[in-house]
Amino acid sequence: YRMNIPQIGIVSTSKPSDQNWTRFSFGVGYNQLKNFNESFTVSGNALNTSLTEIFVLQAQGIPGEELTNSFPFGAGLAWESYLINPADTTDANNYISAIPYGSLKQTNVVERRGRMGETVLAFGGSYQDRLYLGLSLGFPVVRFEEKSSYTESDVDPDLDIQDYTINQELFTSGNGINVKLGGIYRVTNQFRVGASWHSPSFISLNDTYETSVVSRFKNGDTYSANS
Asked: Terminus of the chain with fewer CB atoms < 10 Å: N or C?
């Protein structure tokens, strides 16, 4: 229900001093190309399937003190929040999940916001009302934000863990440029020939992202870790 303006523009026309040129036109406009706004929730019950098993696979064979540097957005956070632990005392580099078995509830809440739009500068001219030329410069802009919250809860009552949540945030911004050229030649009043060329849009994108984990155990302990 957010208000948005998909397209807006203004064009002005002038009469050149050179009589061979019938008119010049200059325009400025904005076009909304994409709208990224959406929210959704996915939820279901799983048996013997936990995301922590992915972290176990990442961590295998790596000392605990190196996990944060090796997997700062995955196994490192799971290690710091006690979602994975050493399987035994003889091999500290072998890990086991805090949820190795049992049924649980998995919920993922995702919210996305942003848009992709383009500001356009356009120029046009008519030469002797026979040759019509046009040029436009486009400046696309990208803004995208995604926040997700993944939770595993209602785990097996025999396990020590109560639930845990992984929060992820991603922000993408970008700017670019493109060029469009075109022309029409009026051979006769009934016959015209035209041609155009459009360049690709060259866009530079920058991503900023972070992940945090919060785990809660049935004895009242709570642990958190941030990338």
From this structure: N
Alpha-carbon distance of 106 to 95, in angstroms, equals 22
Place of tokens 């097996």: 156
Place of tokens 């929210």: 39
Rounded to whole angstroms, the maximal C-alpha distance in the chain is: 93
Amino acid identity for residue 133 in this structure: L
Check pLDDT > 80 for residue 85. yes
Q: Is the pTM of this model over 0.85?
A: no
pLDDT tens per residue across span 91-134: 678 899 999 877 899 999 999 999 999 999 999 999 988 999 99
d(CA 224, CA 166): 10
The Cα 42–Cα 52 span in angstroms is 18
Q: Are strands 222-226 and 21-35 parallel, antiparallel or unpaired?
A: unpaired
Residue 19 to residues 24, 32, 128, 186, Cα–Cα distance (Å): 12, 38, 8, 18
Q: Has residue 2 got a pLDDT over 70?
A: no
Strand (E) or helix (H) holding 194:
strand 192-198
Burial 102-129 (b: 16+ CB within 10 A, else e): eebebbbbeebbbbbbbebebebbbbee
**Average pLDDT for residues 31-44, to the nearest whole number?**
94
